[in-house]
Write a structure and sequence with these properties.
There is one protein chain. A hairpin with a 4-residue loop joins β7 (268-272) and β8 (277-281). This protein starts with a helix and ends with a strand. The relative contact order is 0.09. It contains 9 helices and 11 strands. It has a 6-stranded antiparallel beta sheet, with helices on one face. With 374 residues, the chain is α+β, with helices and mostly antiparallel strands. It has helices at residues 3-16, 19-40, 48-70, 74-94, 107-151, 199-216, 223-237, 328-339, 344-358; strands at 155-159, 162-169, 177-183, 188-195, 244-251, 257-263, 268-272, 277-281, 298-302, 308-312, 365-372. The chain is 49% helix and 19% strand. α1 (3-16) crosses α5 (107-151), α5 (107-151) packs parallel to α6 (199-216) and α8 runs antiparallel to α9 (344-358).
């Protein structure tokens, strides 16, 4: 990188600082250089007002030096330097604005001033260097977040006699949860997945999971048939310490017949409209990517008009209040019973609100709602 490019990046860093951060920085510069003015006044002490004036002049000059330096205004900085140290002192002395000291500046005070200025310059270079590194990483994280949002878009669809709605909210800038919906001529499939870990690494692996799933869905839309193939593919792609939990629903027609299969994921909640009751369905199985030869089974449902099925990641259930009480599936079921007959958009909002009211989220929260049309 050339010197000019480095200066351009340095300017961009200082210009992008939030106003509060800039104010805090220049306040530190003012007090730092104000103390230099007071040190320089030690050999010839005067009144409190003269000491305050010395501090104000030195502090204001330091802020001006700092502003010009951080904006790479080097010509103006050179002119100010000449005025400050070569032109103004003799003029102010002749005009009796400055009191000359016959003995000169105390050596210890002079050394203190030099060390303070050197420390300030070193701090300035450190801040600019680390700031450029921070903004580079921040830009990469923001890009990863945008990729995650494009790979896990909200779902609001109607297909083959069913209404579907889904949303994923990441706990940080980049999420590790995934949701997807695929429709073909005869039916549809929706699924959610939770990649182990958090942050950028989990977000990158989430992209790998979706790519593998979409490739395999070109050959099958049966969720039970999808899992063994997806498991073998991910076992060869994921790092040894990583795995993925998965839960999916598929329908092959408009007759209300659904198939559910999961891999190391929590149960599905099934609210029966006729009885007004909620049941859980799930299987004990290994997450994807751990054991290439793992086997997976499916559960079939004959959904009746008005029935509602809920898939969620553990970010919506593994929540703890300050007394260490867990929200759990019980809390989610209680919230579901209160709103199960409402439109899906209202149910989605109610479940997310109930979870967040219990405890602030510490993990990604992903939710899919599937209702058979009445």
């Amino acid at each position: 990188m050339t010197w000019k490019q480095r200066q351009q990046r340095s300017r961009e860093f200082w210009q992008r600082l939030p106003p509060r951060s800039s104010l805090l920085f220049f306040a530190g510069v003012f007090f730092l250089f104000g103390s230099i003015g007071l040190i320089g006044d030690i050999p010839h002490p005067g009144s409190f007002s003269s000491a305050l004036l010395s501090a104000l002049i030195a502090g204001g000059t330091g802020v001006l030096f700092g502003w010009l330096g951080t904006r790479a205004r080097y010509l103006a900085l050179g002119i100010l330097f000449v005025l400050e140290f070569l032109v103004l002192p003799p003029l102010l002395t002749r005009a009796h604005f400055m009191r000359p000291s016959p003995a000169g500046l105390n050596p210890a005070a002079a050394a203190a001033i030099v060390m303070i200025v050197a420390g300030y310059v070193a701090m300035l270079f450190f801040t600019a260097t680390e700031g450029r590194r921070f903004f580079r990483l921040q830009n990469e994280v923001e890009l990863a977040g945008e990729i995650h949002r494009s790979l896990a878009p909200a779902i609001a669809r109607s297909a083959a006699g069913f209404e579907l709605r889904g949303i994923s909210r990441s706990a940080g800038a980049v999420g590790g949860d995934l949701l997807d919906f695929v429709e073909d001529g005869s039916g549809w499939l929706c699924y959610l997945a939770d990649v182990s870990g958090h942050g950028v690494a989990a977000g990158v692996l989430m992209g790998v999971v979706k790519s593998a799933a979409r490739t395999l869905l070109l050959t099958t839309s049966d969720v039970a048939a999808l899992l063994p193939y997806l498991n073998r593919a991910l076992a060869s792609l994921l790092p040894p310490e990583s795995f993925v939990t998965f839960a999916g629903l598929c329908a092959s027609g408009a007759d209300g017949r659904l198939q559910f299969a999961s891999a190391g994921h929590g149960p599905l909640l099934y609210w029966h409209a006729a009885a007004g009751e909620c049941t859980r369905h799930g299987q004990q199985s290994f997450p994807l990517g751990l054991f290439p030869a793992a086997e997976y089974e499916a559960v079939n449902f004959d959904a009746q008009p008005g029935d509602l099925l809920v898939l969620m990641t553990d970010g919506l259930t593994e929540l703890f209040d300050r007394h260490k009480n867990e929200f759990g599936l019980e809390g989610l079921e209680a919230a579901l019973r209160r709103c199960a007959r409402a439109p899906l958009v209202e149910i989605e909002a109610a479940l997310l609100t109930a979870a967040r009211a219990f405890s602030p989220p510490t993990d990604d929260q992903t939710l899919i709602l599937v209702r058979r049309a009445v």
